[in-house]
Amino acid sequence: GAGVSQTPSNKVTEKGKYVELRCDPISGHTALYWYRQSLGQGPEFLIYFQGTGAADDSGLPNDRFFAVRPEGSVSTLKIQRTERGDSAVYLCASSLVGDPSYNEQFFGPGTRLTVL
Amino acid sequence: DQQVKQNSPSLSVQEGRISILNCDYTNSMFDYFLWYKKYPAEGPTFLISISSIKDKNEDGRFTVFLNKSAKHLSLHIVPSQPGDSAVYFCAASSGGYQKVTFGTGTKLQVIP
After folding, report:
1. What is the CA radius of gyration of chain A?
2. Which of A70, B60, B65, B79 is most buried, by the most CB atoms less than 10 A from its CB?
3. Residue A42 pLDDT grade (very low, low, confident, very high; cuts 50, 70, 90)
4. Cα–Cα distance between A99 and B95 in angstroms, integer?
5. pLDDT at A102
6. Which residues numbered 40-69 in B keep a CB inside 8 Å of some CB on A?
7. What is the model's pLDDT at position B13?
8. CB distance from B101 to chain A under 8 Å?
């Protein structure tokens, strides 16, 4: 069975541009998470979906960041007016249900975003 | 505000010896703790977890110890193997809540 996949694996863009990062979770996983990992840091929570709805978006740094999961499977993280400080590896994870006591999060390989 | 801290950025251990990775947390609401392992260019993979109602959980060569009064946990790997060389992240959550807070990681190198 396929794991979590993320596309593209690398994205280079210019400051001010718009980017979309895609995540395909493990089939059947209802919970989906986005994290951002900057150099030398651990993954930083951005947003969590349970099904189609964002159950917690408290980690999104500002209104330039937005994420959707319209059919409860694939998710897209959207970043408007990119800034150099947005450069990081964006990780997606999925789990069966939303309880960390019972279900580990499975991570994708990440998308490395570089804003020039 | 770093709620989960891994104060050792790196650790080198001889093959066959014990590796001990440490983690401290400040949020007393955390009640579930996890360790993830990460190889370069890959996402983190779950290793082992522990609930706050326990003080020890063991899985093969990996054991996690939790000291709630000290807000400290540690991961023991015995015996260490070269394939264990990776970055290890400590993470925590509270009340079944999905927001998992990660530490900054410790890079473990196991020397053959």
Report:
1. 13
2. B65
3. very high
4. 9
5. 55
6. 41-46, 49, 51
7. 98
8. yes
